[in-house]
Amino acid sequence: MHYLYILYSPTIDRFYIGETTNLHQRVIDHNNHKYQRGFTKAAKDWSIKLYKICESKQQAMFLEKFIKRMKSKKFILKVIENPSILDDIIDKNKK
User: Is the pTM of this model over 0.85?
Assistant: First the structure.
């Protein structure tokens, strides 16, 4: 099972989008700065704002890249508010 996730840090007022097979451990890793060269090392208060169970790693990576390409905090907030947007994106990609 793969997850797409969106984390938020109030300290730096930023979002982070990623994918993983172990959501709980990944958040712990981000908060403990396991990824020294990663973006999330900027804060220690990351929390899950949204997660979606995906059918495959490819689907999770597709959604992650789609959201990141938007480069929009507004879009991320819309997705958090209305997660069905992710299903619409998947459906359009299947066609």
Answer: yes
